[in-house]
Amino acid sequence: MSVEIDIIRDSAAFSSLSEEWNALASRFNSPLLRHEWFAACADAFCPPGELSIMVAHDGGEPTAIAPLVINPKFGTRRFEILGTSVLGELSGFIYRDEGSLRRLIKSIVAARRPVLFRCLLSDSPELQILRDEGSTGKAYAKSVTFSSPWIPITSCWDEFYSTISSSWRSTLRRAQRRAEEIGKVEYEICTPTAETLDGSLEEMVRVESSGWKSRTGTAVLVNTGLNRFFRNYTQSATRLGILRFAFLRIDGKSVASQLLVDYGRRYWVLKVGYDESYARCSPGILLMHHVIHNAFEQRREAFELLGANEPWVHIWKPQVHNHELYRRYPLSPLSVISHGLEAADSAIGRVRAIMKKEGGGIPWRVLVNKIGRRFGIGRAPVL
Asked: In the chain, what are the domains?
């Protein structure tokens, strides 16, 4: 068996791999592993000259691909999975079989470069092989687990709806009535064309930027990288016919929006937003409920909410995908210092995000408790 490892560093070579890439990715049934996703990531987030996609070949045929980028951070130049540091969505490698994956990961480990791989499924072959191959030699490694919600669709809508608690069903009905008291309520789920894409995207972006996401810098309208990514990706997804927009309008005005992909008999929710001035009628929750209902009507197999497992999505009693962050550094003073700086920067960033989201109008004692819960240290003492 003749196995070669190539490293793709320029966009032209990356682009030429699209057909072979998607052939490998097809076995995973996820739009987040297709070439179009990573191509948009490379264009929006990859520092110049830092693309480092590793491809294992067997007889000239690609058998495994690691979509990597080199991120110069905190004094080191580490491997990361392209796009995950910004988007935080499910990710991983693509491969023909686990033997091919193992050979690819052996090459990554042999490079002796620090790695930080986010958003890998906890039970993924990638994580298991990374741990196996990284168990020898000098390393500094740590795993952090988080979860993203999803809803398996295994019954009819009426049966599923009956599993929602009576109090939440009452809350949904009350929110619908409040929306109707304001004006005419309309829901729309549309498939954009090349001609209608820009208009639908602008409408979605306007709604999403009207709330806390603008304050935290995660709204597409105010974040240059996200804006570039979503404009590129939505064009590719439109050409494939898999892009969907969902809107809730009251008297013709959009008050909640979603950007999603219909792929592999699943809905994948990429962006949500709502107009905070209509918060009394919970437009974001009403629209999510409508889109989930639509997924049942369209006989999809699952509904991937993506993002974090926030309390509000528990209305629909989702299951969760458990993810892990895999970190491996050569054991050296520089690596330990780099990790310490990264941990401190991450902690400060999360505190700032909480403060921005609350808009500065939250009592300090409540803020301290929120920060404590975010870091998993329970309720802060009352001083």
From this structure: 3-145+322-331 (3.40.630.30), 154-300 (3.40.630.30)
In a 10 Å sphere around its CB, with 0-12 CB exposed, 13-18 middle and 19+ buried, how is residue 201 labelled?
buried
Enter the pTM of the model: 0.85
> What gap in Å lies between CA 175 and CA 182, rounded to an integer?
11
> What residue type is assigned to position 301 of the chain?
E
Q: What angle do CA 177, 182, 187 make, to 5 degrees?
A: 70
**How does DSSP assign 246-270, residue by residue?**
EEEEETTEEEEEEEEEEETTEEEEE
Residue 337, classed as helix, strand or coil, is: helix
Are the C-beta atoms of 122 and 324 separated by less than 8 Å?
yes
Our CA dihedral for 160, 162, 167, 173, rounded to 10 degrees, sits at 80
Q: By three-state DSSP, how is residue 123 classified?
A: coil
Number of H helices, E strands in the chain: 14, 14
The whole-angstrom separation of Cα 205 and Cα 210 is: 9
Q: Which two tokens stand for residue 336?
A: 């330990």
Query: Considering only CA atoms, which of 253, 244, 238, 250 is closest in space to residue 291?
Result: 244
For the ranges 61-70, 178-187, 247-256, 344-353, which has the lowest average pLDDT? 344-353
User: For the chain, what is the mean pLDDT?
Assistant: 86
Dump pLDDT digits (tens) for 203-246: 999 998 876 666 666 677 778 889 999 999 999 999 999 999 99
Confidence at 182, pLDDT banded by 50, 70, 90: very high
Token duo for residue 271: 């962006």
Reported as type and span, the H/E element at residue 150 is: strand 140-152
